[in-house]
Write a structure and sequence with these properties.
Elements: H1 3-13, H2 35-40, E1 51-52, E2 55-57, E3 63-64, H3 70-84, E4 89-93, H4 94-97, H5 105-109, E5 115-120, E6 123-129, E7 137-141, E8 144-145, E9 167-171, E10 185-190, E11 201-211, E12 223-235, E13 240-265, E14 269-295, E15 300-323, E16 334-341, E17 344-353, E18 356-377, E19 383-406, E20 417-424, E21 427-431, E22 443-444, E23 462-483, E24 488-513, E25 531-532, E26 540-541, H6 546-551, E27 555-559, H7 564-567, E28 570-589, E29 592-615, E30 618-640, E31 645-656, E32 667-672, E33 680-685, E34 693-706, E35 710-731, E36 756-764, E37 768-779, E38 790-802, E39 820-830, E40 833-842, E41 845-850, E42 856-861, E43 864-874, E44 888-895, E45 902-906, E46 909-918, E47 922-930
Parallel strand pairs: 7-10, 33-36
Antiparallel strand pairs: 1-2, 2-3, 4-9, 5-6, 7-8, 9-10, 11-12, 11-47, 12-13, 13-14, 13-46, 14-15, 15-18, 16-17, 17-20, 18-19, 19-22, 19-23, 20-21, 23-24, 24-27, 24-28, 25-26, 28-29, 29-30, 30-31, 31-34, 32-33, 34-35, 35-36, 35-37, 37-38, 38-39, 39-40, 40-43, 41-42, 42-45, 43-44, 44-47, 45-46
């Protein structure tokens, strides 16, 4: 008998228990019965404990005149949410988010037990749950599915300002009514609901920030600022309410980046080439949320809400690309004076090296809108119903403008360099003989002749690559609930339709010097302060703004006629029809109470993708797809004892839809020049018939609570992966296909004998995932009165994966998976003063990076530990209302205190460093004022 069947038998055998008759009327139900609200408010209301910054109410209803504010109030709110839920859930509230050193909500939820983050440009952009990356979880906004700013489903959390968010709930187990669930977790971002507040709120805040690493690029900044404002109020005898929040950010981020092409054998393992630069990014983000609620009658509530985020990330990258061992035997490059240790070339001298100086400009612009209308009907006769309509839309343009410079056009032309090098645990450093900042030596040109063709004689001088992405998601949902009484307290059912359309349109062209010039000295009016690459011992390099050169006609755009460009375009459409039925449970087992739910969700998927397909050596545009059903039974049980102990057990069939870019029809390929003497064509595409990840899951959790002030918990989980998605790479003969590369395909057609591979996602048998999490919040004053105000919160997670990354390969790590994840915060808060230190750790994981021909390359990312700190003071504490300082608080924050780098290596080869990125420390000071 299956574990799910056993659980259902256990449930039915307990069905004779009667519901507890407390005689207490349930609290008013919230208007929008999204997942967090459905589990927080039980039918009898007995489990619910209300917590606010102004005090607590005990389960017995006795009022306690205790004022709890700030960070401790947010912890109490999170504990209450966890305690009253029928699922395993972690939560963080606005009091916490607004006072941590956070650029986004990603920074805050990365501190929750079992969670961590993956940094992008120094920011916590993606979240990992139970050791698994963003491809295995989903994100909702107010219970609704959202579009994304990337190519796949994973939401970039720095798109959401922490200042406009009220709470974030992370569900690690599911219920039948949860639409859009993830495999390892579901993140639900919640904005404020005005009719659920107790009083008017008017608050403003201002922060100043500093990047300690400094201004790495000319024109960049090291100081920034952010401001926010919130207004919440109720009108018409508290039957109408409005909540408005806005946030603006203008902050710089600076990165010192080292990158190796790869490593190869040449008298030992040696670096193939280097492409390193300093990156300066200026993030400008405006975010706003608005909610209007109205009780049209005692039984009918209307909720209208909207969220908007405008995200502009302006990125400057300047550095040098050095063909090294990869150029041996292909150019006149030489290698002498090598020193080999443990089979690795740790130092030596490269001669006749032809460098390419890069001045690149990237812009990421995204507009995200999400809105919805919810109509809730609760007449008080045992019936409840609601209708929810929503839309989410993201429009994104991501421009990569590349500009090249060097000593001469084409390889073998111009001055060449001799570089001594040394390699260690943070990569390689180089001692050049050329002055790369001299504009009379380093000129605008195509130094290596890359991309040479009929329209680009001698090679391209740069490249213009704009990716235009449109993503629209519409969701329609209806739910109805009927109270039954007894152990089967109520029955709920619902239907949902989700319609999503995501498309990519490429806009690409070569950059060529005007009037057919082979090379050009950068005009003096465009020259900027040289960029210092001293962290690699390369010294200064020439700097200029390539956007200005294009705007003023120094560069001209030449359309890329290669047929590979339109093949990158795709349009993916999904229609998901979901329905569920669920029984809510509430009854006594001796002195304890058993609550929970049991039910099933069924999902009909209709997916299709339009793009280029290949038949022989002919490309055609086609629409392909598939239709299928998923049936997802689910059981959640919570045994609540008089000793404030909660034991949870859950069984479920779970699914996670594939990455959207994995479902594309589009097919692309390109030349991999990691080894310049033996170029390889690598290609990749999607699979429009790809099925979801599917798993059978079991969870067992034991939680001990200390009222609503503290808890400790142990969580065991197991997932049997019935269906997994693999990226399979196989040899492929590209002979006869077009390629605009004179070195590999002089005639424009790929000849016989050129090695090639192609990768494509496929479904196959999975494996299993299991692990344990230990979590808790302990206020020391509960045990030792002298330590009142001190406390600790955090957790540790261990996850074991038995999955084959390749269908017929050995067991190994899948992308984004960390075996160990830990985080913790030590805090003190009393007399208006607050201080805390937070640390989060994740062990090594396999990362995925974009490679040649649209395939994804896996590299081993090293483990990392990030430490942040904050101190703050509420100037109005203890002074009483009406004083000039009442409501004013000030704070200082510091993040990445140990300057922890992000580093990747070739799997199984710790000496072969591929990436090494340093972000530096960040500091913030600011103030908030609440009227």
């Amino acid at each position: 008998m299956s574990p799910l069947a056993i659980g259902l038998v256990m449930l039915l055998s307990a069905g004779t228990a009667q519901a507890q008759d407390t005689g207490v009327a349930p609290p008013p139900a919230p208007p929008q019965q999204t997942e967090e609200e459905k589990t927080e408010v039980t039918p009898t209301g007995e489990v619910q404990e209300e917590v606010s910054a102004g005090g607590t109410t005990s389960p017995s209803g006795d009022s306690q005149d205790i004022v709890v504010t700030g960070f401790r109030a947010s912890l109490m709110s999170a504990i209450n949410k966890k305690k009253t839920s029928e699922q395993v859930v972690e939560s963080v509230s606005a009091e916490d988010i607004g006072k941590l050193p956070d650029a986004s909500i990603g920074e805050s939820i990365a501190r929750l037990p079992g969670l961590t983050s993956q940094r992008l440009n120094g920011r916590a952009a993606f979240i990992s749950i139970r050791g698994f990356g963003p491809d295995f979880s989903t994100t909702l906004l107010n219970g609704r599915e959202q579009t994304s700013t990337g190519d796949n489903r994973a939401v970039e959390f720095d798109q959401y300002p922490s200042e406009v968010v009220n709470r974030v709930d992370v569900y690690k187990t599911m219920t039948p009514s949860l639409i859009g669930q993830g495999l390892v977790g579901t993140v639900d971002i919640r904005t404020a609901r005005p009719l659920e507040t107790t009083s008017r709120v008017i608050a403003v805040g201002l922060k100043a920030s500093n990047a300690e690493i400094g201004k790495l690029n000319a024109g960049s900044k090291d100081f920034g600022w952010r401001a926010n404002a919130t207004y919440i109020d109720k009108f018409a005898d508290d039957t109408m309410g409005i909540a408005l929040s806005a946030s603006y950010v203008d902050e710089p981020y600076q990165i010192e980046e080292y990158n190796a092409w790869g490593w190869q054998d040449s008298g030992g393992r040696i670096i193939s080439g280097n492409k390193s630069w300093v990156t300066s990014t200026q993030l400008k983000r405006y975010g706003a949320s608005a909610t209007f609620q109205a009780d049209m009658s005692d039984a009918f509530r209307v909720t209208l809400d909207g969220f908007y985020s405008k995200f502009d990330d302006d990125i400057i990258r300047r550095g040098i690309e050095l063909p090294l061992a990869g150029a041996l035997g292909w150019t006149s490059a030489g290698l002498t004076n090598t020193q080999v240790e443990d089979g690795n070339v740790v130092s030596g001298t490269f001669t006749n090296i032809e460098a390419v100086v890069n001045n690149h400009h990237l812009t990421r612009e995204a507009d995200l809108f999400s809105g919805g209308a919810n109509l809730a009907w609760r007449p008080g006769n045992g019936w409840k119903a609601e209708l929810d309509l929503s839309i989410s839309r993201t429009d994104r343009e991501e421009l990569i403008l590349e500009s090249n410079a060097g000593t001469g056009r084409g390889f073998g032309v111009g001055a060449r360099d001799t570089l001594d090098f040394e390699c260690g645990e943070s990569g390689c450093t180089f001692d050049p003989t050329l002055d790369y900042s001299d504009p009379n030596v380093i000129k605008l040109t195509s130094p290596m002749g890359w991309g040479a063709g009929p329209d680009t004689p001698g090679g391209q001088d740069g490249y213009y690559n704009n990716r235009i992405v449109d993503d629209v998601l519409k969701q329609y949902r209806g739910d109805v609930e009927r109270e039954l009484g007894g152990f089967l307290s109520s029955v709920r059912a619902g239907l949902s339709l989700t319609d999503r359309d995501k498309s990519l349109t490429p806009d690409e062209s070569y950059l060529m010097l005007a009037n057919g010039a082979a090379e050009m000295v950068v005009p003096s009016q465009y020259l900027l302060r040289p960029t210092n690459l001293s962290y690699l011992d390369l010294g200064p390099v020439i700097s200029y703004d390539p956007l200005a050169l294009l705007r003023d006609g120094i560069y001209t755009r030449v359309a890329n006629p290669h047929s590979d460009i339109p093949r990158k375009a795709y349009d993916i459409r999904e229609n998901l029809y979901a329905g569920y039925v669920m029984l809510n449970l509430d009854g006594d087992i001796g002195p304890s109470r058993l609550t929970g739910n049991v039910g099933v969700q069924a999902v009909r998927t209709d997916q299709e993708s339009t793009g280029a397909v290949i038949t022989g050596n002919i490309f055609d545009r086609a629409t392909l797809g598939d239709k299928y059903w998923d049936v997802l039974p689910n059981l959640n049980l919570s045994l609540r004892t008089p000793a404030d102990l909660v034991v949870r057990f859950a069984l479920a069939r779970q699914m996670q839809r594939p990455r959207l870019d994995q479902m594309r029809v589009a097919f692309g390929y390109g030349v991999d020049r990691t080894d310049l003497s033996n170029p390889t064509i690598r290609g990749g595409g999607g699979n429009p018939e790809l099925r979801p990840y599917r798993a059978n899951a079991a969870d067992l959790t034991v939680e001990k609570y200390f009222g609503t002030r503290g808890y400790v918990a142990a969580q065991l989980f197991y997932k049997q992966l019935k269906n997994f998605i693999y990226e399979q790479e196989v040899p492929y003969d590209y002979a006869g296909l077009p390629l605009d590369d004179l070195l590999v395909a002089p005639s424009g057609i790929i000849p016989e004998g050129v090695p090639g591979t192609i990768s494509q996602p496929v479904n196959a048998k999975g494996g299993k995932i299991y692990g344990v999490e230990i979590a808790g919040t302990l206020p020391f004053g509960e045990f030792i009165s002298a330590l009142d105000g001190f406390g600790v919160t955090g957790g540790y997670g261990y996850t074991k994966s038995r999955v084959r990354p390749e269908p017929d390969g050995p067991f190994g790590d899948i992308p984004g998976y960390s075996r160990h994840v830990a985080n913790g915060t030590l805090f003190f808060e009393k007399w208006g003063f607050g201080a805390r230190v937070s640390a989060r750790y994740r062990s090594t994981f396999m990362g995925e990076f974009s490679g040649f021909g649209a395939n994804r390359i896996r590299r081993r990312a090293k483990g990392e530990t990030l430490i942040d700190a904050q101190i703050g003071y509420d100037l109005g504490a203890g002074r009483g209302a009406g004083t000039m300082f009442n409501g004013l608080s000030v704070f200082a924050q510091a993040s990445n205190l140990t300057d922890e780098p992000f580093s990747t290596i070739n799997a199984g080869a710790p000496f072969e460093v591929i990436d090494y990125q340093s972000y530096g420390r960040r500091y913030q000071v600011g103030a908030t004022f609440k009227f």
